[in-house]
Design brief:
single chain; alpha+beta; 4-stranded antiparallel sheet; 4 strands; about 60% helix; about 15% strand
């Protein structure tokens, strides 16, 4: 309890924010402490974790209940003003955090898509297609050289093999081009539509009062100063 304080207000609030995709990205319940001096709500105190705010559970005396009600009547308007100020501050902090995180997310996604495009080009085209094309070249060389026995049958077999491999090359090239197009469309969808909405506030963040507790100096002995 701060020196000179008549009481301590513990205001528990729930913070809630969603993005343009209607995804909840901020949801937090916390307790804020305000000293009360001469019937006025003073500056918010430093945050403490919930376990440090615990006191032995005791039923308050009727005089303390009436005193707490009287104090609440005096500070209720200030509490509402504090909640509005907290909401404004929260919106500013979340907006700044979203800009920073959104920039980082965009860079990560661009890098990821670029890497995937590179995999398609390097691992698939440069390896598999080149191997097939080398096989076709070898078959053509064999066909031009001819064979000693069963020349006609062997040449026909080689021609069929060449045709099959050429068709396989065309099929794979078409598949790879389709994959590149899909990656490009997905990159456009993610970077131009998904991420901007994911890292943008929908309306404003909300702060809802959950509970208010007024403690007097006699009940503060176990609370860290």
């Amino acid at each position: 309890m701060p020196d000179g304080a008549d009481a301590l207000l513990l205001l528990t609030v729930e913070e809630f924010a969603v993005n343009e995709l209607r995804e909840t990205f901020h949801h937090w319940v916390r307790t804020i402490r305000f000293p009360i001096i001469d019937g006025e709500l003073k500056t918010q105190m430093a945050h403490l974790p919930a376990h440090e705010l615990r006191v032995p559970s005791e039923m308050p005396d009727p005089p303390d209940i009436e005193k707490a009600r009287a104090i609440w009547d005096e500070v209720a308007t200030e509490v509402r003003e504090q909640i509005s100020a907290l909401a404004e501050s929260l919106n500013e902090k979340l907006a700044a955090a979203l800009v920073q995180e959104g920039t980082q997310a965009l860079a990560r996604e661009n890098e990821r898509f670029q890497s995937r495009q590179g995999e398609v080009s390097a691992l698939i085209e440069q390896t598999t297609l080149q191997r097939l094309e080398r096989e076709i070249t070898a078959l053509r060389n064999e066909a031009t050289q001819g064979v000693l026995f069963d020349r006609e049958g062997r040449l026909a077999e080689l021609e069929r093999s060449i045709a099959e491999k050429e068709e396989e090359v065309r099929r794979r090239r078409a598949h790879y081009e389709e994959l590149r197009d899909q990656l490009a469309k997905e990159r456009d969808r993610v970077t131009r539509f998904l991420l901007p909405k994911r890292y943008a506030l929908r309306a404003e963040a909300q702060i809802f009062p959950v509970a208010a507790e007024i403690r007097f100096p006699s009940a503060e002995e176990t609370i860290p100063k």
